[in-house]
Specification:
The chain has 255 residues and is mainly β. The chain has no helices and 15 strands. The strands form 3 sheets. Strands 3-15-5-11-12-13-8-9 form an 8-stranded antiparallel sheet, with no helix packed on it. Strands 4, 6, 7, 10 and 14 form a 5-stranded antiparallel sheet that branches. The chain is elongated and about 95 Å long.
Length: 255
């Protein structure tokens, strides 16, 4: 049996506190009914909100937009701009004589980060790198210098990798062709490759697998003595193919 109570106002019979129903009771608010609250609601857990979304204006002060984020003090502020922005990804799984990754260096960013791996098809080979500008591959001019200091993982002895006045950088030499371990992997930080009239410096951290399957690690730098505004690079091995390779390039946001 159901009944209906109609009243314009409910008030406690005594005092200022009242109770609606008992524990376990369910009160249904039909579709289209509006509860107009001019006071406050307490004890309402977030878990009781089971559908819909909360308007951004209810989460904090300030203006919510695609360029702002909500901070812990419940205010919307401009999102931080520092970070890495992906600009190029490229890879190959079959032998190639030449790996060309060009067009990812632009005036959008001053500096770049590049993570890479190369695996030579034949053990004992080296991997070399030349640079590109708007006119093409820069493979002459004796403008490539590099110096690295490393550790031989088999006995802890010191290893070096260096040269100057060459027509290409040498990333590694005498590399092993173990496809599971990869010949050479590393990270480069390209400093101002587009700055007019300035040389490009590349900070280089890498690990190579030598012909005896020993793990060598190197830290060093590459310097291009020309002042070209660079756009990318070209890699190859000394006498055979590069069997597999992968490159991920990122622009460093100017902040």
């Amino acid at each position: 049996m159901s009944s209906e109570i109609k009243a314009d106002k409910w008030s406690p019979a005594s005092g200022t506190a009242g109770t609606i129903g008992d524990s376990g009771d369910t009160f249904t608010i039909p579709s289209g009914v509006t509860l107009a609250n001019a006071g406050s609601v307490t004890g309402l857990p977030a878990s009781a909100i089971s559908s819909g979304t909360i308007a951004t204006a209810r989460l904090g002060s300030g203006t919510a937009s695609s360029s702002t984020i909500l901070y812990g003090d419940q205010t919307y502020k401009t999102a931080p701009s520092a970070g890495l922005v992906p600009v190029k990804q490229s890879s190959g799984t079959s032998g190639t004589a030449n790996v060309i990754v060009n067009g990812w260096i632009t005036d959008t960013y001053e500096n770049y980060v590049m993570d890479y791996y190369f695996n030579v098809a034949t053990s004992g080979e080296a991997v070399s790198m030349t640079l590109y500008d708007a006119s093409g591959n820069i493979s002459s001019g004796n403008n490539y210098d590099w110096s690295h200091l490393g550790i031989d993982g088999s006995d802890g002895s010191t290893e070096t990798l260096y040269n100057s006045g060459q027509n290409a950088f040498r990333l590694c030499h005498g590399a092993n062709d173990d496809s599971a371990r990869l010949s050479v992997t590393g990270r480069m930080i390209w400093l101002h490759p587009r700055l007019s009239g300035k040389r490009t410096t590349i900070i280089h951290n890498m690990r190579m697998l030598n012909a005896s399957a020993e793990c060598w690690t190197f830290n060093g730098a590459l310097e291009f003595k020309g002042t070209n505004q660079l756009t990318g690079f070209y890699c190859n091995s000394t006498s055979g193919d590069i069997d597999t390779w992968g490159v991920r390039c990122y622009g460093i946001v100017n902040s």
